[in-house]
Design a protein that fits this description.
Layout: E1 2-8, H1 15-25, E2 30-34, H2 42-46, E3 49-64, H3 74-78, H4 100-104, E4 110-125, E5 128-135, H5 142-160, E6 164-171, H6 175-181, E7 186-191, H7 195-210, E8 215-220, H8 226-238, E9 243-247, H9 251-258, H10 263-266, H11 270-292
Parallel strand pairs: 1-6, 1-7, 2-5, 2-6, 7-8, 8-9
Antiparallel strand pairs: 3-4, 4-5
Helix pairs in contact: 1-11, 5-6, 7-8
Length: 293
């Protein structure tokens, strides 16, 4: 089973639009996984019908048993987050779930309880199954939710006999990105010709190198600053990475998003044509990886 993750060092580079177009272009059955659990957008393009919803629990908060508490103040003295008020009630938002109050309470009046951190969904789209998720506001453990989404995508792929999973990864280089790229067949790094795009490309390349993830580059909206586009291509060459695609700016991409369609489904145009060429290069990359393993 092959997994392609589409990532970017920063948000707004167009990775979700490209992932959705790949799902529409694939001639084989694919499973799509939206691993940007903090801001999942793939569902807005693939138009899924939800099949099932599953709770995700990965956090704990403290809870005080008033029948045992003698208000000695020990838990409040030790809490560094100000999560315990004068009436010995726990603020679930302020509580970090460290468990220290439970440890130091002389009466055993504090216990940790599991809370919902978000949920993940199994859906069906015109392009195939979609696994996506939503992390609750203020919750951590996004990396664990990403891992859950990827595992569900693998299970679904085995169930339907799909040989390819398309992962729409989160932006940046943090924990959810690491959870998205671990063990994938290849990564497509989408960047743009801007100073931040160039800077963050270098960072995400370092992450892929650290985890030995084969990677290639795509430059989106490449015609906005050709000088920076050439610099990005030079950096990719320095890192021994192939630039598989140059996608020009095209208003049709925005119009497609407004119609909840991928760029290649909505209309022709320079961006859609370039994405089709990019997909052909990605397929060759994945097939080459299969031949060398």
């Amino acid at each position: 089973m092959r997994e392609l993750v589409v990532i970017s060092g920063k948000g707004g580079t167009g990775k979700t639009s490209i992932t959705a177009s790949f799902a529409a272009l694939s001639s084989e059955q694919v499973v799509a996984a939206d691993c940007d659990v903090d801001a999942p957008d793939l569902q807005f393009v693939l138009r899924p019908t939800q099949r099932s919803e599953h709770d995700f629990c990965a956090s704990e908060v403290a809870e005080v048993d008033s029948s045992l508490c003698d208000e000695c103040g020990t838990c409040r003295d030790y809490c560094r987050f100000g999560a315990i008020d004068a009436a010995y009630r726990i603020d679930d938002v302020a509580c970090e779930g460290c468990g220290l109050c439970e440890l130091v309470c002389p009466r055993g009046a504090v216990q940790m309880r599991e809370i919902s951190s978000g949920c993940w969904f199994m859906s069906d789209s015109p392009c195939g199954p979609l696994v996506h998720a939503r992390l609750n506001f203020g919750e951590g453990n996004s990396g664990k939710l990403v891992a859950r989404v990827r595992e569900a995508a693998r299970v679904e792929a085995r169930r339907i006999g799909a040989d390819l999973i398309l992962v729409d990864g989160p932006p940046g280089i943090g924990c959810p990105v690491i959870a998205s790229i671990a063990g994938v067949s290849a990564a497509l790094i989408v960047t743009e010709p801007s100073p931040s795009g160039l800077h963050d490309l270098r960072r995400v390349v370092q992450v892929c190198d650290h985890f030995s993830i084969p990677a290639a580059v795509c430059i989106n909206r490449c015609d906005l600053d050709m000088q920076l586009t050439r610099r990005i291509a030079a950096v990719a060459q320095e890192e021994e990475l192939s630039v598989l695609g140059h996608i020009p700016y095209d208003n049709n991409v925005t119009k497609a998003q407004m119609q909840k369609r991928s760029a290649v489904e909505y209309a022709g145009g320079p961006a859609a044509d370039s994405i089709r060429e990019l997909w052909g290069a990605v397929v060759e990359l994945l097939n080459w990886r299969d031949d060398t393993e």
